[in-house]
Design goal:
The structure holds two protein chains of two kinds. Chain A is of the alpha/beta class. Chain A has one domain: Glutaconate Coenzyme A-transferase. Helix content of chain A is 22%, strand content 28%. Chain A is built from six helices and eleven strands. In chain A, strands 1, 2, 3, 4, 8, 9, 10 and 11 form an eight-stranded mixed beta sheet that branches. Chain A has a three-stranded antiparallel beta sheet with strand order 5-7-6, with helices on one face. In chain A, helix 2 links the parallel strand 1 and strand 2. The termini of chain A are far apart. Chain B has one domain: Glutaconate Coenzyme A-transferase, CATH 3.40.1080.10. Chain B has four helices and twelve strands, in the order H-E-E-E-E-H-E-E-E-H-E-E-E-E-E-H. In chain B, strands 4-3-2-1-5-8-10-11-12 form a nine-stranded mixed beta sheet. Chain B has a three-stranded mixed beta sheet with strand order 7-6-9, with no helix packed on it. Chain B is globular and about 50 Å long. The chains are: A alpha/beta, B alpha/beta. Chains A and B meet through helix 4, helix 5 and helix 6 of A and helix 2 and helix 3 of B.
């Protein structure tokens, strides 16, 4: 934890560069760092050639769709893109590369990346095209897929409450991929809907401990409003 | 839960599918028709709904909620939770699925093969929603129930000799319910198991270009008292 309570601009310009791999939190709209993404979209020429690791492609006009539309993304690694028909078209037209991974294995690959485990073994996807081209390992008479871990340069995640030390807490179904992504990147930017004094979050309630977090920035009003 | 008017055929298949759900089960509902299952469950069938984006104890839709609310289902709709619900992250959510704690996954399908293979995530070059959690649900739920219209818009049945589309998981479908019939996988092969009273054996197999075993004695369509 380096900075405490700074601006989105300062956080992004300090840590994010073109060509990086960014993990972006969220499932549907919960946990999506809309304010940080909007900054990247508003400064598109400075942030290009990105690889995004995100559960889904958001919906047209909001979240990472802004980055996909503006050609800032070379590859999206995701689990489900069904709510963004515009991106499905971009993928089918070959504009943006997309790798789809089963959702729980997506999360486990990130956990492995954060936990210092080079790869995991799984039977998920055997007998499907997910297994094509992947290394396998024989164990106790069973064939398993070798799934390499995933790490990112920077994690962009949105918490409901963070304290000034960087501890973070999520409400309802907003936690999703955010916590595990916060463990698996060299830099972690937590965008928080509410920032409180250190000590105001109960220690046993904290979902992401501050040791993983580099900077906390305030979430702005939802840039998309209610659609 | 979701908003749309159901056809009478959809009500029929949902009610029949509801009778496959047993009291006390932990159940995951796929996006689409399965999301209408809760309102079609028989009386006194209390189940715990798992939402793969991070909770168990999903309740009905939240009319005051929005897609930006703090509790949404995996399809992005605002919903409520019941007393005793628990929120968690994606890791725990899929530990529930892969670890054997999900009793039933109710899924839609593009195709189901005679051997119970499921294809429901990709039509190459056209519709590619992605598998989401579907591969793990199909492969690891203790039972997979597929619900579907009997015929697609071109009059083709969902049950095919072999799937032509990319698989979600091989040999995973335990039960297929349509508005005309129920099919069950027995000894690795889908069998006709029950027929709606309005249909005969011929129409229960209409559109199905596969050699479906049809036992002489079938299960009753209606619940047995």
């Amino acid at each position: 934890m380096l900075d405490r309570g700074t601006t989105v601009e300062k956080a992004v310009t300090s840590y994010v560069r073109s060509g990086q791999t960014l993990m972006v939190g969220g499932f549907g709209r919960g946990g999506v760092p809309f304010t940080t993404i909007k900054y990247l979209a508003d400064n598109a020429t400075d942030y290009r050639n990105l690889t995004l690791i995100k559960n889904d492609a958001n919906e047209p006009g909001i979240g990472i769709d802004l980055l996909l539309k503006q050609g800032q993304v070379k590859k999206l690694i995701a689990t489900h893109i069904g709510l963004n028909p515009d991106f499905i078209r971009q993928m089918n037209d070959g504009e943006i590369e997309c790798e789809l991974i089963p959702q729980g294995i997506f999360a486990e690959k990130i956990r492995a990346g954060g936990a210092g485990i080079p790869a995991i073994l799984t039977d998920i996807g055997l007998g499907t095209e997910v297994a094509h081209g992947k290394a396998t390992y024989e164990m106790e008479g069973k064939t398993l897929l070798v799934e390499p871990c995933m790490r990112g340069d920077v994690a962009l995640i949105c918490a409901d409450i963070a304290d000034n030390a960087g501890n973070a807490w999520w409400r309802g179904s907003n936690r999703n991929m955010c916590v595990v992504m916060g463990t698996a990147c060299d830099r972690v930017i937590v965008e928080a809907k509410q920032i409180v004094e250190t000590g105001n979050l109960k220690a046993e309630d904290i979902h992401l401990p501050s040791v993983f977090v580099d900077v906390v920035v305030p979430a702005g009003p939802l840039p998309h409003g209610e659609l | 839960m979701a908003k749309r008017e159901l056809t009478s055929g959809e009500h029929t298949l949902l009610e029949r599918a509801g009778r496959e759900v047993k009291h006390g089960m932990v159940v995951n509902l796929g996006i689409g028709l399965p999301q209408f299952l809760p309102e079609h469950l028989p009386a006194n069938t209390d189940v715990t709904f798992h939402s793969e984006n991070g909770f168990v104890g999903m309740g009905e839709g939240n009319p005051e909620g929005t897609p930006d609310s703090d509790v949404i289902d995996a399809g992005g709709r605002a919903c409520k939770v019941v007393p005793g619900a628990a929120f968690f992250d994606s890791l725990t959510s899929f530990a529930i699925v892969r670890g054997g704690n999900l009793d039933l996954a109710v899924l839609g399908a593009f195709e189901v093969s005679l051997s119970g293979d499921l294809a429901n995530w990709k039509i190459p070059g056209k519709l590619t929603p992605g598998m989401g959690g579907g591969m793990e649900l199909a492969q690891k739920a203790n039972h997979v129930l597929v619900i579907s219209h009997h015929l697609d818009k071109r009059g083709r049945g969902k049950l095919v000799p072999q799937c032509s589309l990319p698989l979600t998981a091989p040999a995973c479908v335990g039960t297929l319910v349509t508005e005309r019939a129920v099919f069950r996988r027995i000894d690795g092969r889908m069998h006709l198991a029950s027929i709606h009273p309005d249909f005969d054996r011929k129409s229960a197999l209409e559109g199905i270009n596969a050699d479906v075993p049809t036992p002489d004695v079938l299960e009753p369509w209606e619940a047995t008292p």
